[in-house]
Amino acid sequence: MVQKLDYLKETPSQTAGPYVHIGLAPGAAGFEIYDKELGWDIAGPNAKGERIRVEGIVIDGIGSPIKDVMLEAWQANADGNYAHSEHSGAVEEGFRGWGRVITDFETGEWGFETVKPGPVMGRNGKMMAPHINLWIVARGINIGLNTRVYFEDEAEANAADPVINLIEWERRRATLIAKRGERDGQIVYRFDIKIQGEDETVFFDI
Amino acid sequence: MRQPGEFYQRDREWHPPAKTPDYKTSVTRSPEYSLLSLQQSASEITGPTFGHNDIDPIDNDMIHNYAQPGEAAIGERIIVHGRVLDENGRPVPNTLVEAWQANAGGRYRHKKDTYLAPIDPNFGGCGRVLTDQDGYYFFRTVKPGAYPWRNWVNNWRPAHIHLSIFGTSFSQRLITQCYFEGDPLIAKCPIVNTIPDQAARGQLVAALDMNATIPLDTMAYKFDIVLRGRRSTLFENRLEGN
Predict the structure, then answer these.
(1) Of A57, A36, A61, A42, whose CA–CA distance to A104 is shortest?
(2) What is the mean pLDDT of chain B?
(3) What's the whole-number mean pLDDT along residues A147-156?
(4) Kind and range of the H or E element at A155?
(5) How many Å lie between the alpha carbon of A188 and the closest alpha carbon of chain B?
(6) At residue B242, does pLDDT exceed 50?
(7) Taking a contact as any Cβ pair under 8 Å apart, which residues of chain B between 141 and 170 contact chain A?
(8) B61-83: average pLDDT
(9) Which are the contacts of A185, defined by CB distance < 8 A and separation ≥ 6?
(10) pTM of the predicted model, to two decimals?
């Protein structure tokens, strides 16, 4: 006989289902209930750095856009600091670093406005290239999928990024790199997410 | 010196796998490649925080938070309460718990829900609350009804409340569903049965809690939520810096 390891088990995940919007984005479900829906403003008005838009679609295994997805973003500010008590650096007042968006019911397009994050110190003193952490839930997804958005114009930092370099298949690394463009004077990064099949996006167990 | 370190590895055999063909939608919405496992960095051990300025005190009362003045939602009045703990059994205070559900007839207030059961004009089905210092939370609501869905032609979801929990780090982020003790639909549900282990499925079933039931007023169900636990760093093993 040995002593018991009396850890609790994590509550098992379940799909967010088709009506995730009711709870987490009720305005999109078609009704107003809260004075303040959370997650619409990631960076706030005081954040320094380049103002950007990140957008894309989420594509299923047969190539169709998924139109009932919710995505959450978690990112550092332009100095590479997270708005969290365990991150020593400061963030601007109003910078939350967290956002929540849903896909358009007709087109499947999603997008959010924020500032481009700075590089964040990773493990063992290795700097991570600027990135935004994403979490994706929807009907048919049993447990939320984690991925990262990196930026095309940070090629040098991306080449040295310790997480990108963990991806043994170099061809798959490109699935994490958002394409930079411009529309109506705004910087837009395109980041399409392929859940399954050819050019499937890299997902992480974090 | 003990310092908080990384979160325990998620037990992916306890959670449902991505591809579960009896839940048909998962077939084309599940990655085929393996997940890439990361040792955690600041990107994973931090996460968003919320305060009382973010929500209203009535937000956790779904009986009233969408009702006309003087009205209330129709249905079985229940309290769903419990604690948010980590795998070490420690409470997770000040964390945001969000809930959404169908009304007593199984109809969601969502423009995409066309089930013929009617909308309740006094019920939104949307609530949220911050845990207190002991990790305790509660919602007041009506017990949701079962509803049919297009999977097999005669599938019915057991009564359930969807729950979203943040914890203190992005790696603890979790969405799940709370079921109710004694519901015979639980065992038949392909979504419940995406979870391979029977004990794990049981962890999603709220217990009827007569001690918390308010006599002549409201029944109560207890539903504790467990988020990933966290390692104490006993030796030098810094996640960041030099």
Answers:
(1) A57
(2) 95
(3) 98
(4) helix A155-160
(5) 23
(6) no
(7) 162, 164-165, 170
(8) 98
(9) none
(10) 0.96
CB-based contact B16 A142, cutoff 8 Å: yes
Q: Is B29 a catalytic residue?
A: no
Q: Which amino acid is at B11?
A: D
Q: What is the dihedral of CA B102, B103, B107, B113, to 10 degrees?
A: -50
Cα within 13 Å of Cα(A92), Cβ side: 18
Shortest CA distance to A11 belongs to which of B127, B97, B64, B242? B97
Q: Do A19 and B110 touch (CB under 8 A)?
A: yes
pLDDT value at A28 more than 90 = no
User: Residue B181 has what DSSP assignment?
Assistant: T
What is the least distance, in Å, from the CA of A42 to any CA of chain B? 10
Direct distance between the N- and C-terminal alpha carbons of chain B, in angstroms, rounded to an integer: 18
Which two structure tokens, joined as six digits, stand for A134? 């994403």
Tell me which residue of B173, B12, B98 sits closest to A134, measured CA to CA. Answer: B173
The one-letter code for the residue type at B241 is G
| pLDDT reported for residue B232 | 84
Residues of A with Cβ-Cβ distance to B99 under 8 angstroms: 23
- Enumerate the residues of chain A whose CB falls inside 8 A of the CB of residue B239: 123
Residue B1 has pLDDT above 70, yes or no: no
Contact assessment for residue B129 and residue B123, using Cβ atoms and an 8 Å cutoff: no
B15 among known catalytic residues: no
Is the Cβ–Cβ distance between B204 and A14 less than 8 Å? yes
Are the beta carbons of B18 and A143 separated by less than 8 Å?
yes
How far apart (Å, rounded) are the C-alpha atoms in residues A195 and B48?
A: 25
Q: What is the DSSP letter of B85?
A: E
Residue A149 CA from chain centroid, whole number: 7
Phi first, then psi: give them for residue B181, nearest 5 degrees: -50, 135
Torsions phi, psi for B141 (to 5 deg): -160, -175
Q: CB neighbours (10 Å) of residue A203?
A: 23
Q: Is B90 helix (H, G, I), strand (E, B) or coil?
A: coil
Residue B31 pLDDT > 60: yes
Read off the pLDDT of each residue in A83-90 and give the average, rounded to a whole number. Answer: 88
Place of tokens 């995730």: A20
A98 CB within 8 Å of a chain B CB? yes
Q: Tell me, what DSSP letter sits at residue A129?
A: P
Neighboring chain A residues of B63 at a CB cutoff of 8 Å: none
Side-chain-side CA neighbours of residue A144 (13 Å): 27
